[in-house]
Design goal:
By secondary structure, this protein is an alpha+beta fold. The protein has helices at about 45-65, 105-115, 120-125, 135-145, 150-155, 165-170, 180-185, 200-205, 225-230, 240-250, 310-315, 325-330, 370-395, 415-425, 435-445, 455-460, 475-504; strands at about 5-10, 15-20, 25-30, 45, 70-80, 85-90, 100, 160, 180, 190, 195, 215, 220-225, 235-240, 260, 265-275, 285-290, 295-305, 340, 360, 400-405, 425-430, 465. Strand 15 (about 260) and strand 16 (about 265-275) form a beta hairpin. The structure holds adenosine-5'-diphosphate. The site of adenosine-5'-diphosphate has 19 residues, from helix 11 and helix 12.
Length: about 500
């Protein structure tokens, strides 16, 4: 067999990539899908768009190179994490739209739990900081707000899943209701140490256990595709949340190895091996990967809005026609003229964890130009990652001399150079920035023996470009101080908003 197919179901688009035996991309198909914003701070997807779009790109990627089902050794799935779907197990109809990880509708539910003093308990079991970001409160919201959902769930008629579960259930024609350990670790219902759904948390969120998927390793055969989809049965043999898949695809197999992804959100993960490290600096402890019965852990810093700020410049402000044009504008000016943009559109993630912070642009003058605003947006992506990096260095006690990058916006040379400058570290970009898909392919390929072991796939990692820091320490400290002042403004604004909401 010639290929492994990775299905990469991202926040803004679905992609299918066929990799050959040497880890080279042989075919790619991609499709963006609709983002649904019913209210400020709410984000949804239509689960049918997710499934149909993913199926379509998979078929297209195969057709482009004339690949048949029998040419594909296995499928690996990787997905936007935490996004929550509930569907009817008899007909596959979702009872509500997918509630996307970015959605803030359940922030008050989380505030209540925090006020009740439950943070430490949730943290110790799940490794997560209580936040609306994770699946638990989103699932609870669906059960509480969709008419009849709770009764039907209790009767065993409804299934819950993150996007991996939803895709695998559909791919296997409803035969496999599963998730992998990495995705389970993002639900805030899964005990990452004992590795089981946690009854106490299920009770807290009033979630019937019968609707939960079976938790499996990230690399194993979950089932085979229904013949109908691709004209033959293909084993579905790998699954991991997008960030964990990227860590694996970057071959960060050893403790201390780090990758930073610049997609819709920004995510830095450090492999911590068999040890689940508890953060003191606002990072999450999560499962990095599960192979056979073993799991490895990671420290993670998540930034909610990363490349998405460029999409905002493109779609809402119409300042650029296409995301890559941001680089042209940013390099037209020598600096931002003192302008900082804090893209706290959905609150701030690590290391601040403030659900109420909102976006802020400060330092504007009459001479501020469009190019400076665009540059400030790109710089903000790098500053946010820098904050996470600082936290990671504190928690791990390791000084990060170099990081490996990937994701759509890592193609932006200006951004990567600025990242290297504000970090004062080397930034290494691999030739294949589709590391998320590559990671999913590795997992599937290893499960079916398409590749022998991790050593073999390690050779597929090739360097594209290295960025070295060029800023003086004085310039760096000045730039960072300005950024932290701007973040402070966004946090204070959020505090005001929260008080207003409380008084309403
Ligand atoms: P996801 O998998 O989360 O959907 P991707 O890894 O495909 O995201 O990255 C897409 C994001 O990166 C978009 O938000 C887009 O605006 C941004 N992006 C893509 N290319 C560039 C670029 N050259 N410069 C800046 N941002 C970019």
């Amino acid at each position: 067999m010639k290929y492994i197919m990775a299905l990469d179901q991202g926040t803004t688009s679905s992609r299918a990539i066929l990799f050959d035996h040497s880890g080279e991309i042989r075919s790619v198909a991609q499709e963006e899908f609709a983002q649904i914003y019913p209210k400020p701070g709410w984000v949804e997807h239509d689960p049918r768009d997710i499934w149909r779009g993913q199926l379509e790109v998979a078929r297209k990627a195969m057709k482009q190179i004339g690949a048949k089902a029998e040419d594909i050794a296995a499928i690996g799935v990787t997905n936007q994490r935490e996004t929550t779907i509930v569907w009817d197990k008899t007909n596959g109809q979702a009872v509500y739209n997918a509630i996307v990880w970015q959605c803030r509708r359940t922030a008050p539910m989380i505030d209540k739990l925090v006020a009740e003093g439950l943070s430490a308990k949730i943290r110790s079991k799940t490794g997560l900081i209580p936040d609306a970001y994770f699946s638990a409160s989103k699932l609870a919201w669906i059960l509480d707000n969709v008419e009849g959902a709770r009764e039907r769930a209790e009767k065993g008629e409804l299934l819950f899943g993150t996007v991996d579960s939803w895709l695998i259930w559909n791919l296997t024609g409803g035969k496999a209701h599963v998730t992998d350990v990495t995705n389970a670790s993002r639900t805030m219902l899964y005990d990452i140490h004992h590795r089981c759904w946690d009854q106490e948390l299920l009770d807290l969120f009033r979630i019937p256990a019968c609707m939960l998927p079976e938790v499996r390793p990230s690399s194993c055969i979950y089932g085979t595709t229904s013949e109908y989809w691709f004209g033959g049965e293909i084993p579905v043999a790998g699954a991991a949340g997008d960030q964990q898949a990227a860590l694996f695809g970057q071959c960060c197999f050893k403790p201390g190895e780090v990758k930073s992804t610049y997609g819709t959100g920004g995510f830095m993960l450090m492999n911590t091996g068999k040890k689940a490290v508890t953060s003191k600096s606002g990072l999450l402890t999560t499962i990095a990967i599960g192979i056979s019965e073993e799991v490895e852990y990671a420290l993670e810093g998540s930034v909610f809005v990363s490349g998405a700020v460029v999409q905002w410049l493109r779609d809402e402000l119409k300042l650029v026609d296409a995301s890559p044009d941001s680089e042209y504008f940013a390099t037209k000016v020598k600096d931002t003229g003192g302008v900082y943009l804090v893209p706290a559109f959905t609150g701030l993630g690590a290391p601040y964890w403030n659900q109420y912070a909102r976006g802020m642009m400060v330092g504007l003058t009459r001479s501020t130009t469009k190019a400076q605003m665009i540059r400030a947006a790109l710089e903000a992506i790098a500053y946010q990652t820098m904050d996470v990096c600082t936290a990671m260095e504190k928690d791990s006690g390791i000084s990060l001399k170099s990081i490996q990058v990937d994701g759509g916006a890592s193609r932006n040379d200006f951004l990567m150079q600025f990242q290297s400058d504000v970090l004062g570290s080397v930034v290494c970009r691999p030739k294949c920035v589709e590391t998320t898909a590559l990671g999913a392919a590795f997992l599937a390929g290893l499960a079916v023996g398409f590749w022998r072991d991790k050593e073999e796939v390690k050779h597929f990692w090739n360097m594209d470009k290295v960025f070295m820091p060029t800023m003086t320490e004085r310039e760096r400290q000045k730039a960072i101080a300005g950024w932290h002042l701007a973040v402070d403004c966004a946090l204070r604004w959020g505090e005001m908003e929260r008080k207003l909401q409380e008084n309403e």
